[in-house]
Design a protein that fits this description.
The protein has helices at 14-19, 27-40, 53-63, 82-91, 127-143; strands at residues 2-7, 44-49, 69-73, 94-100, 121-125. The protein is of the alpha/beta class and 144 residues long. The protein starts with a strand and ends with a helix.
Length: 144
């Protein structure tokens, strides 16, 4: 299985966000854990974090024929980034939306994401666990 992971804007600052909760979760630690689990499960993994929508769109478009699935944490893009939404619709990749639990969320998580309707599932949880849940969910979807 080939899997893309797209981390949205400001997630490179996960260490600062988690420190507010007296925790030490960083994007580097999340990616390391994802890579380890991917190796154990024989999953080919490509990850990207960006603040720039055009970089995110290029990442999805360039890998759309390679990828079996996408784990996507849109953060603030979830409210307004329609060009990225259109890219995901056209690319037709099985997508799981990743939303962080309230203590890690910097914006009002009660507002509905524009991506929810096109994603196979939206998972909510702590950053160090929810991506791993996303891998399991993609595996289930692909096996059925």
């Amino acid at each position: 299985m080939n899997l893309l992971v797209l981390h949205g804007p400001n997630l490179n600052l996960m260490g600062s966000i988690s420190a507010r909760n007296s925790e030490n979760i960083t994007l580097s630690k999340i990616d390391s854990k994802l890579k380890r689990v991917a190796r154990e499960l024989s999953i080919n993994l490509k990850t990207m974090q960006t603040h720039k929508v055009f970089n995110a769109i290029n990442f999805v478009q360039r890998n759309r024929n390679w990828a079996d699935g996408l784990l996507f944490s849109p953060s603030s893009w979830s409210k307004y980034e329609y060009s990225l939404l259109e890219c995901l619709i056209v690319s037709d990749i099985i997508t799981i939306e990743i939303v962080f639990s309230k203590k890690y969320n910097l914006i009002d998580s009660d507002l509905k994401s524009i991506f929810t309707g096109i994603c196979k599932k939206t998972l909510t949880g702590d950053p160090d666990k929810v991506y791993l849940d996303g891998i399991k969910e993609i595996q289930k979807i692909i096996k059925t």
